[in-house]
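pasting for ref
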Amino acid sequence: MRRREKFVITSVLLSLGLLGVQATVIDFRYLAVAVFAIFSYLMSTWALKDDLQFHERFTVVPFPVLYATSVSLFYFLLPENLLSKIAILFLFGIGMYALFLTSNIFSVAKGRTIQLLHAAHAVGLLFNLLTSLLFSNTIFSLRLPFYLNMLLIGLVHFPLIFMSLWSVKLEGEVSERISVLSALFTLILMEIALVLSFFPLTVWYNALFIMSILYIGLGILHNYLKGRLFARTLTEYSLVGILIVVIFFIVLPFK
């Protein structure tokens, strides 16, 4: 069976799985999400197995799994509108297919450069930010204590950061530098989530702030790993960061 056929089949099956999760009784929905995440991992492994090395089960395969899981959790928060749910389901299937293509490029591009790699990095960053936004929105929507917000933000963002940094060099193994950078940046996001837990902001503001910091951090770290972190680049990202902080204080209700 050709790879693209496997990607289409897996995307359709996962879309049906997402529909099944939504149809689950409320008391068992989180259990259904966990089962769906495991099913997503198994199906993603099958779809990408042709060029898959052992370490890529931790650097490539989890990407579509995290996306699928974030959408399945966010799906619960949508209004009971059939049209919107069908639209999300359709977009989810297209997104899964695009992620399989992206993950496949990362898998086959190791040790050599292919023309589509730059496009794969752009798509990967886009879905990384989207997954972060959906996860963060779900976490803050639960109105959990600050320490659980911090823990869950770290739990979902470490693999996102780790996979994104690994994809820069597509190394044949997991280097210590990638692991350390991922851990340090995750710690920063956890501290930000801790601080946000004490501000009276809406869920979407919190999620967008986390996503914005993720974008800035990944941009800086990507350039650092490529050896292109020049003063001008760092200044540009710093200005974006300052703008985000200013907007944060503008929307903050001080009353």
